[in-house]
Every structure is written in structure tokens, then in C-alpha cells.
Give the backbone structure.
Amino acid sequence: DTEVTQTPKHLVMGMTNKKSLKCEQHMGHRAMYWYKQKAKKPPELMFVYSYEKLSINESVPSRFSPECPNSSLLNLHLHALQPEDSALYLCASSQDQPGNTEAFFGQGTRLTVV
Amino acid sequence: DAKTTQPPSMDCAEGRAANLPCNHSTISGNEYVYWYRQIHSQGPQYIIHGLKNNETNEMASLIITEDRKSSTLILPHATLRDTAVYYCIVTKKGAQKLVFGQGTRLTINP
């Protein structure tokens, strides 16, 4: 199984809503990542978890809150988002750090904030 | 990590070899060259990586110049399904980040 599964595939939420994005992998990978991608732009790194601990936060606003409940799961909790946060949110995993091995990406959650 | 420069777009005819260049003139000795691609509406997909030597796998070949300041990704017999944005990334072994540049939008024409 070389899949990273993201749910939901599409999400529409209001600016006062609270929602969560979910990412799951069963490859035994110990590093997991959240990226944000706007249309026609490259993915931008948001967070890195290494061995279930947050190791990198790329100065992401606190309305995005990551969580790694176990080595297979990564969540992104969303609260009080703005319309400009509408984007494709990508989850990825790698065996350990991406410089050592390839990273596997999910298909993404397309988020629309209204 | 060293900066990479790629042409913003390229075209290639179906069945021909697609050669995608990447300039990384400030690469250091312990940095690897990685290539990923992103087909429309999908997540990025790993293609290949290398340090000094040329590499080949079932998807592509990677040619790195002797001075390591540039590389070329070769898709030997391009198909319509190879239409995608191709990202060249230079990163150290053990780096915790994978940082994407602007990439090259490759269009394979029938």
C-alpha cells in the first residue's frame, strides 16, 4: 500500500465554521507534511511532523492547527478561516526526512471558504 | 537549499523524448537533485533523484552534469499522460523540508 489518503476531497465552509482535514498512511512512514497550494502556484510547506512531533511550522496563522494523533494519522483543524485560505491542501509522508527518501502525496482536499 | 531555475513551459510531441532542464549552479556537495511531477488536480508524484551519477528508473532518466550545476530529466517516449508540471528540487540528505520552485509546465501534443 503506497497511498496517502486524504478526506474529504472537497470542503466548503463558512468563515465561522470549524472543520478538520484528515490524512492517513499505512506505509510506516514517520514524517508527515501539510502543504497549501493556490491555483497555478507550487505547493507551499505549512507543517512538518517527525515521529509524531511537530518539527516545522512555517509561520502558519493559528487558525490552522495541526495534530498528529498517531504515526498513521495527520489532521489539520480549521477555524475562522478567510476566503483567501481557499486552496488545495496536500498531505504527504516519507519514511523519515524527505532528503533521505521520496515523499508520497495524497490527492488533496480542495477547500473553499465562503 | 540551493535555488533551482527551470523554464516555465515546454512542449513536446507524443512519442518523442522530452528533455526538461534544471539549473542549480549553487548546489553544494551534499545536496541531491530530486524531480517530482504534478498532473492536473492530483498530488505531486516522485519521479527520480540523484547525487552525482546519472540515474534511470522505469519512469525517467536523470542526467547530472559533471560540475553538478545543471541536470536534465528525460522522459524517453512521452505520452499524453506525461502532461504535467515538473519540479526540480535540490535538497540535503536528511533535510526536513521539501520546497517546491515554480516548475516547468510540460505539454505533450498528439
Chain B is about 0% helix and 45% strand. The CA atoms of residues 1 and 45 of chain B lie 20 Å apart. Chain B touches chain A through 26 residues (CB under 8 Å). Chain B has a mean pLDDT of 94.
